Amino acid sequence: MTTRTSDSGPRRRALLAATALAALGVGSAQPKAVAAPAARRVRLTLPAPTGPYRVGTVSHRLVDQDRPDPWVASRPSRELMVSVRYPARDVERYPRAAQLLPGEAAGFDRLNNFGGVPQGRVDWAATRTFAHQGAPPARARRGAARPVLLYSPGVGDPRSLGTTLTDELASRGYVVICVDHTYDGSAVEFPDGRVETSRLPEEYERAKREGTVVELLRKTCAVRVADLRFVLDRLDALAPMPLDRSAIGAFGQSAGGFAALQAMHDDRRIAAAVNLDGVLAYVEGTRTPALSPRSPRTGWTVPC
């Protein structure tokens, strides 16, 4: 079923255009702030997890040889970075992981979605998480396998922007796989030091000129869903412990929430999904494209 909305004038057109703009994390041009000296930059502290387990983390580079990169035609394969958060033990000998690596921090500083935070004011690379790099996994009770969650961030955001939530879930016994959507997130740093930055601002400007913003939003969601499904294909190689394949969920914020629901609809391996503040529509101009018919599997209305 397709829902159409009437055009009630310039104010409504401006509102809908702003909605599409916000969905891509792109704002109007602002004067560049002068970077503050490093000694004066704000350093952020994250809240500690409250669950019974300490938290460990490992990161992996994944390459999908069967899928050319949808954003960069010269890349013959799709390349991702993921971080795995898990219940850990004996963490004292293992360092706390940075929330953002230096290249990621620089990219996030240039393209962050916090409109009130001037560029250069925060030392994003200084923040430490409560996840300990490479810490050994905690033993599950009676050898049980751990439930698995996939996390997809908002458009333009790095996978680490949900750190407090993912670390909290890991402290309560979940294995959480945080996915960076390369060329969508602000910056992705790979093990060789290469940093790939977001292509979405330029993609959005081109889509505005060509009148194809809705198509760009659809592509963005489709790429994210394909990324999540590829991560599921590599599940056994990612986590340092037995995983419960009957208890796989997905969640995300904004576009990540939309992608999580769509991935659940498309992939029977995902049993549950949570959408945190994601709009379930592709909105631009005066049209609100449809949500698809009910899913025969769940009876729920799902995004198309």
UniProtKB/TrEMBL annotation:
The keyword Transcription does not apply. It holds the Pfam family PAF-AH_p_II. InterPro entries: AB_hydrolase_fold (IPR029058), TAT_signal (IPR006311). Residues 1-22 form the signal peptide. GO terms for molecular function: 1-alkyl-2-acetylglycerophosphocholine esterase activity. It comes from the Bacteria. One of its GO terms (biological process) is lipid catabolic process. Keywords: Hydrolase, Lipid degradation, Lipid metabolism, Signal. This is Platelet-activating factor acetylhydrolase.
